[in-house]
Amino acid sequence: MGTDLTTPAGVLVPRLNPWQIITWSSKQRQCIYRSWAQHLSMRRCNSAAQIYFDKCINESSSHDFLTVLMRNKFNRVMARPEEALEDSRNAVNFMQPEKSSVNLLIADALHDINQFEDNKLLLHDNLRREMGTTKVPFLQRLTMVNENFKDSVGDSMSPFLLKNSAKLSSIHEHLVKPKSTSDPIARWQLYKEKKECDVQSLVEKRNMRISPLEGAWHERKRKFFFQTYLQRSWVDVAFLKALRDNPNVTLDNYFQSAEERLQMLNKTCEQLTKFGRMLHARSPLYNEIHQRMEYPEKAEKFHDENMFRIQYQTRRNMISILRTITALRAQNDTRRLRKFVEKAMGEYNVLKTRRAMPWKIEFMNEVYNHLALSLCEGYRLPKTKVSPYDNNSMCHLLGVSPLKPSEQRTVVFGDRSTYTYDDSGDAFEQAKEFKRCKLALEKRLFFAKLPIERSYLLYELADVHLLQNQQERCLLYAQKSIVEARRCNSKIWEFLATMQQAKSHAILCKFERQSDVLNSAYQLAKDLKSPQLCTFIELCRMLNRDYMTLRKMLQLVASKRLRSRLSNRSLTEK
Fold first, then answer.
1. Is the pTM above the cut of 0.85?
2. Which terminus of the chain has a lower count of CB atoms within 10 Å, N or C?
3. What is the mean pLDDT of the chain?
């Protein structure tokens, strides 16, 4: 692009590259752009190559047939069949008369875009038109398209339809269901016409929640898909997808190119997925499975043996988990036991079906009952004396820290140690961990169906809110845990949830409500036939009664002093 070096006074000369200063002709610039595009495409600089291909085509006043063909090949390599088809059709418009090579490009583009019917029609039209050796490439492509149709609707399709006939009706209704062609009306406009609301409102986005088991199924199907079509290269695809979540690759907080790097990884993954879908359209997955099953009896036998192996390994893992829980109980390490149960039941147990784990309900009951017994062992008589004159005695007895007022921090100018930051410090890390635990428990609770598991998850949510001094939320989740425990007739989890309520009332110093909660806990301890728990709850009840007695005495003394002051004031006024 040539520039005029004579600039008016008072205007800065634009900063140009050295090659931009020379006044090149349009044809020379076109050749430069084409050679740069070729070089960048060979070096895998795809974005820059696309820019210079477009510049080369836009620079030419007449249609550049050669560059259009080069960009067509480039788009096919980059898994952009729609753009390749558009370039092929533009090349046909540029050339008069049409050439068979350009028609071959259109046929290849239609094949890449999975429009096999149109591709077959185009090949037949060109076979009638061409003569001699020019028919050979069209015949080769026609043979390939016929094989694609044979793989899609051939012998492998009938067994697939018979096996999935129950699902076809819902899929057919979804496809045949008429779609509204009218433009969607904004919600604020709809409300304004009804005279209900005249403010532009935002459309709510529904978050699709997928259970861990369903997510594992999708991941397994995706893995099987790439294993089928990419053979041993599926490992590279899995590695590439794992790089997107690797902080050593993205480096979000260190470089400004993190977003560009992540975008490049996502784009590469999309290209691989598109290539896989192209292969799937040519030979569907059910056809690949049908071709491999030359001996159905042996395949069925292998499938059963693999299922038995998974069941035996699952049983051994279950026994190992129960042994670890028993060992942690013997060590009185409740903290490690709770973490182990959370990991085992939240990461391993949820990914097992009833077929792989036929004893799933019994195993879950065993694990949660072991955990409940370990938590109940924490309620023991203290080694020191408990005094009702200490307001924090009940909190220490139940093993919770009393509520303390937040300290007011003073900021000293120039002293950075006195500054507070919203995204750093222990408080920020604690809040971040609390949010992570809360979201993980709520996600598990959404998909949990067994009442004892729901009672455990609600108990953990109540405990998380208790540690964050959110007593009202703790009481709410503890009450829900009691309801779920009663559904499965689990006295021990009902007792633990009741003790969570007792802890919250102890922190809030609500002695009257604490009395009712402790009475319920004492009755549950009697039903559990545990003398240790009965003794502990009785001590808590005695301490709570002493608190209530002292409060009444203090109220009487305070009212007596108030009456004496009022009487003295009346005497002085007389």
1. no
2. C
3. 82
